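Hey, resending since the last one bounced:
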Amino acid sequence: MTADVLPDAATPFGQRVRTRLQNDTVIWIVTVGADGRPQPNPVGFCRDGDADSAEFVIYSRPDAHRLEHLRERPDKVSFHFDSDGLGQDIVVLHGRVVVDDDHPAIQDWPPYVEKYGPAVERVFGSIAKFSESYPIALRVTITGVRGFYVRG
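The structure tokens again:
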């Protein structure tokens, strides 16, 4: 999906959003629990499409509470990147998340293996083991972006 929801690629902020979506390795997913409280968790993610794509995929354990939160409130989710430590590189994404039963397993999806393969092997021993532990593919469609970037 190509979306007009991403900031203009000709602007510094638009360029930075695309760069972070492509290169960052951790994004924080914030779901809403049944009690109405935000539930932030860091996750790995991988773009699904070109630089203008408004979609990415995260994988989840089947026992993660976020799955229940997302089933009950698929539109009440946001994502954000860690800042640069100075509060000058802020990107917050709003989106819709659905379980993508047709998406390949981690070990069978080259973009994810290329991005995370060495790190996953160090921590889990193998891509196959990690893929077994995180079998649920969640497709995120970005519906809004806010934030700012101050050039230093």
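Helices lie at 12-23, 65-72, 110-124, 127-133.

Sorry for the duplicate.
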